[in-house]
């Protein structure tokens, strides 16, 4: 069992911002314009160079990782 304050450990796990999938549409220096899967756009920062139209994960206004470019299929149930 981990030592320390269990409430602080729990908050550290649950209070992180959600990761979102986005597509890079423009780049200006270390700022990127991305389009979210839901259709919105945002300007985020990134420390690595990402190509246009590449898929990325964003969290708290920053690109945290490159996402795999997998096919998307929507099925009505």
Structural overview:
The protein has 77 residues and is mainly β. The protein has a domain at 17-66: OB fold (Dihydrolipoamide Acetyltransferase, E2P) (Beta Barrel). Helices cover 12% and strands 39% of the residues. The protein has one helix and five strands, in the order αβββββ. The chain has a five-stranded antiparallel sheet with strand order 3-2-1-4-5, with no helix packed on it. β1 and β2 (31-36) form a beta hairpin. It is extended, with a radius of gyration of 16 Å.
Tell me the number of strands: 5
Shape field: extended
Instruction: Using the coordinates shown, work out and report the CATH topology of the domain at 17-66.
Output: OB fold (Dihydrolipoamide Acetyltransferase, E2P)
CATH architecture of the domain at 17-66: Beta Barrel
Which structural class matches the secondary elements? mainly beta
Share of residues in strands: 35-45%
Order of helices and strands: HEEEEE
Q: Over all CA atoms, what is the radius of gyration?
A: 16 Å
Percent helix, as a range, is: 10-25%
CATH fourth-tier homologous superfamily of the domain at 17-66:
Nucleic acid-binding proteins
């Amino acid at each position: 069992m981990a030592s320390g304050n269990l409430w602080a450990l729990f908050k550290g796990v649950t209070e992180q911002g959600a990761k979102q999938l986005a597509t890079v549409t423009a780049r200006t220096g270390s700022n990127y314009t991305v389009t979210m899967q839901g259709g919105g756009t945002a300007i985020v920062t990134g420390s690595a160079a990402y190509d246009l139209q590449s898929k990325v994960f964003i969290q708290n206004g920053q690109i945290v990782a490159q996402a795999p470019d997998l096919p998307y299929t929507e099925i009505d149930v």
